Records
---
Amino acid sequence: MEVSINQILEKIQAADKILITSHIHPDGDSLGSMLGLSHYLLSLGKSVLVAVEDEVPPLFHFLPGNQSIHHSNDISQLDQYDLLIVLDTNPEIARIGEKLASLSIPVLNIDHHLSNNRTADYYYIDNQAAATGEIIFQLLVLAKAEITRTIAVCLYTAIATDCGFFRYANTTAKTLQRASLLVEFGAQPNEISESLEAITLTDLTSLRDVLSTLELAADGKIAAVTLTQEILAQDISSTDIFINYIRKIIGVEIAIMYKVVDTDLVRVSLRSHGADVNQVAQEFGGGGHKRAAGCSVRGTIAAAKQQILKAAMAQLAGNQK
């Protein structure tokens, strides 16, 4: 059932115990949105638990309250909550994990992705928002909430990271206005950007290892790198730096990053300058934005590469017609 922002507030006010989650491989938008919303709900006296089926990347440990995010598999009795709020993704097993997706409690889904399938009990999807963090900010403004510096840092991070610090095509005048207001509420853009741009020596040496796997296809229009299990075992602050690096190569239209999670599971990240990689990801049960999307592929890395490359080349060919 589609709901309005006013109805979201009603659902929140009616619930005493609220569980908040987002997608596996959490990013700045998902983490900032979850934490920003949780800080507000805690100020209302709600019992709140933030849980995801993954680990918080070290890159985002500066976010206020990040230590309160639990791994969903480590928590029992999740069905005791009154409401499950799913942010920045679909409430599907492939996106939030089996444990959370199988709960028998009402689900409220707030998202900005075109690929959202609108299957939650209650959903609010705004495809015009650059980030889910924008929607959470709107929600708090409507609720006349006190937007503390803590909340502002979380939501500014959510918005800024999902629009490439206001460089990507999804940046709108409203995006800039909302970010500006969050700065007024205490977010410090320089501190946040410095935290996110910092890399460790391990990141740098891992970049060397990752770039050694670089593969080009379609006359240099597609570039791909592979993160083996050995590379992933290293203490990397964020893997996003790798795909962002190859996306910058002159002539590359689609950048692909394969993460070999297990012998039969590969997570795939896709970025583009124009081609609709969301459509590529959706072919494999994933999704995202036109220029940034992701999915998971069951099978060997060789099989995953073959399938993804075929779909990417088809999308690239269609985009150039």
---
Amino acid sequence: MKILVCGGAGYIGSNMTSLLAAEGHEPVVFDNFSKGHRAAVAGMEVVEGDLADYARLVDVLGRYGIEAVMHFAAFIEVAESVQKPLKYYRNNLANTQNLLAAMETANVGKFVFSSTAAVYGIPQTVPITEDAAKKPINPYGETKLAVERMCHYQCEAGKLRFAALRYFNACGAGNDDALGEDHRPESHLIPLIVQAAMGQRADIKIFGTDYDTPDGTCIRDYIHVDDLCRAHLLALDKLSERTELVYNLGNGQGYSVRQVIETVKRVCGKDFNVVEADRRPGDPPVLTSDATRARQELGWQTQKPDLEDMVATAWKWHTQHPDGYAEKSKCK
């Protein structure tokens, strides 16, 4: 298929683009390079553009004969979304509405959406199923849920087939460890710890050590980016049979902050300073997924479920790219 990958130069988007090409699809990256890296999509078909530009979207969808769209172009920083909610509503919601409108005009009916476990907010029970209450506690989660609802009604109107994939914590380097995580600023736990192990950070902070968990620190569900991308391919195929899909994507196995820190130390063979700090507001003690639906309906199985394997791929990429992707590859 000819697939437009919005945000295709970002972390998950670039890994998805690589997998699509390897599987014989024809991906076209659409990115404004505010966050993405040109080096991550070298050799791929790339269109520089913004999701706010309706006319450009309609032109690109038609000119390339696009048959499906994958959307990875959201802003993802929870804390920033609280400080700058309008920025998140504009990009994550209004720009996605613009994209869906362009798809309708161009008669492109399949849409795979990068959603998030943040739509659940603070869950009453874990592991979390897709039917759990959706009560996001920040603008990031709210905008993702609003897009899901918008897609639902567009589907009800007979104008869209869509899959909403609710990620837990994507991590690791994909495409044989060639495509890693390079957010600026970085806020994800594993790359932050790896940076501490590399001496690029003075320490790693644990926010809260008195949670009702075995070691007192928060527990989260991690999933390797390769496994995440494979689920997108399966969901895209499933849209030939079904019009609306919603799946959790996680391992179902939770690891505490302390466990992740110790795993990085063991894999990297490095020690570093760990600082205990106060809890952050809104951090649930445990967030783990029930991905039974994806396994049963898509036949999806994680191939890299072990935390050590995830950390090892991240460590390999970061040590080979100590400064991340070259800054000259970024659009200023």
---
Amino acid sequence: MTAPAVILSRPQMGENIGSAARAMKNFGLSDLRLIAPQCEWPNDRAMILASGAGDIIQAARVYATAAEALADIRILFATTARARDVLREILTPEAAARRLRTAESEGLATAILFGSERAGLDNDEISLADAAITIPTSKFSSLNLGQSVLLLGYEWLKSADATPASRTRKTQAVPSSRADLIDMFEHLERELDAAQFFYPPEKKEAMVRNIRAMILRSKLNDQEVRTIRGMIVALAKNKWRGSPR
């Protein structure tokens, strides 16, 4: 199984080819194909802007026509900022990425076709595609070539990414010992008692248990216990003691 090829039709600037290659590298794409590049090739600016993706630039294949570049492709999506009558279906980047993943699982060679910076794709090129991809934008429908490759690459990677939507960074800190936790509990409870927090008195035991359970759920490490002890000391200094409720 292989990731989609990125095919740039008549790219005009080496800088944009380099930016596209860098975006590809970030998101697991490696097959770069150029159709009749309008800039000198090989291109020093492309290599500079690739910034770590020089291997993709060096391995890029150049073709004279779209037919040659697409010869082995089974599923082709064309990016366009405008709806075209010759296409029956227009996909969002997210929907296109899902389709590409399905095709990959079936062992089909796939590609995403991008037009030139100045004019985009022509009707003949778009007519070769199975569907179009249009990137939703706020005001300006046209995006920089590197930006377009970046967005499609991101959706491709995301479509198979198992990263949870929200997570807490794990640390290597050692969990606090029970002895340190008990010392902290007793310190906190003494100060809360002095501040007449436990009210009414007959509910003190239940309140203490609930506070301990709440703190234990945080799974504090040694440093965090020391920090809390310091906070308790700071709050207790010169504290104002109110009258009983």
---
Amino acid sequence: MDTVFSSSIAPSLNGFLAQKRSLGYKYETEEYVLHTLDRYWHDNNGNNTDITEKNLEGWMQKKETETVASRSSRVNVLRQFTLYLNGIGEQAFIPMDKCIKSHPVFHVLTTTEIQELFQVIDTYSHRRRQSSEVTRMIQEYKILFRLILCTGLRKSEALGLRLQDVNLSENTVSIYQGKMRKDRLVYMSPDMSELISDYLKYLSRQIGNEPFWLFPSVDPAKHMSGGCAQRFCDFWNMTPSALNCEKAPTIHSLRHTYVVMRMNQWMENGYDLRVMMPYLSRQLGHVSVDETFYYYHQVIDAHRIIHQKDTLASLVLPEVRVK
């Protein structure tokens, strides 16, 4: 088969194919896949050489005549090609390892939205009579949502934290039996540790003894339930930004926002995101670094969603006051 490609990305395709064969791979079936990509690019993207998700979207769609497994194999060739490009310093969208379905698009909060959200949370109080337990829970929300935003924890991981899982002297949180039953150590800022320390003193006074759970429910013997998701929505709906928001954020959006802000901060400091991905992957508890690369191309394609150079901690830590 003729190995000369004709699209605007032909030099990159030829370089990738040459590298694979120099390593001893036959790459015959894969070469055919690359030719289909070359033709698609020529017909749909013209002289454009930006390898983004949008420019590849049509080619990655499952064809009526192929199985899910066949599509996954085809897209995997593209994945190897884009990994090669990033490896030689050319930014390119990297498909997930198993492209069975597309990822939902989550709301990444802007600096203004973060400030509005925590302004609402920090000043919230019921107008009607409320029990001491409800008052305590409002204080817990202030810490819970900050912790997720400042560490990227999953909601279930944060809610299930015991007091013994938090090491304030080392600024760490131990996650046991996370996704795929993996344990990991998550780091937080000294400011976050100090905030939790003050919060625990408040919690002990309210409960009457040292709590077992970091975020106890109305019944201190149990941890806060996942129903706090509705409380998050209530807080968000009180912000000015909620009036003009097409896709409202969820608690999980705090995790996404942490990742995007962390990556933007690294970009500001001149770090190579591809080098930092494995570290971020461990922090997030991803099964593989491939899951984290989803955020990589999301940040690149978003053209730097968050432009401010402010650190994440400075946005959300100083405001809260636990009484």
